[in-house]
Structure prediction request, 244 residues.
Amino acid sequence: MDYATFVDHVRHDGRRLAAAASGNLSIEVPACPGWTVSDVVSHVAEVYEHKIVCTELGHAPDPWPPTWHADRDPVEWLADAHGRLLRMFEASGPETPSATWWPPDQTVGFWARRMAHETAVHRVDVEAAIGTPTPVDADLAVDGVDEILVIMLEGDWSDDADADAAGQRVTISTGGRTWCVTLRRESVEVTPGGAGADAAASIAGDPSDVLLWLWGRAPDARALRSGDEVALRLLRSRLVLATQ
Prediction:
């Protein structure tokens, strides 16, 4: 998925998020315990502000966040920050430098991808709170599965070692792609395209359902789960920490 496509998803899902939130700010959001629609909208606006500043400064702002006006209308703030984020993307290219939390990629392109997924998932959160959510675009959802597994889940987990993780493998399949996740005591390894013939468990389904399951937004019934329940619980516990 290219840079322009990510930016288009930010544009369209941002507008849909604002439309869903308008007039519904006091409604609680089950996917984000303790938050209302107002809280979700303000969170997304603040996230947009942060990415704009990371690009303008060339380094992460510190301290963060600043003190926002307490009486600021969340939907108006979202619309304003969304517009400025899109203008930043349009004035930049995927290789434009920007400070990110992912050391291998310090570019605006990283943020275009991340904001496309941030916006889509929170758009679903708000739609689900007020009625029936619409799925995440299938191609975007497949890329989102790759992002959460490769960028957020894989790596060193020595600070949160789990003695029950002893090399269990879980395969995740959707949209014609497969990832094999190996859960170890102090690390997680993700192999895109890994067959995982000896996997203890598997997860499959429509791209949006699998993505939202990984993000803890979809009930177990929405993704096709099979195999060892211990391995699935280990994966879930790692995902909860990875996406905090």
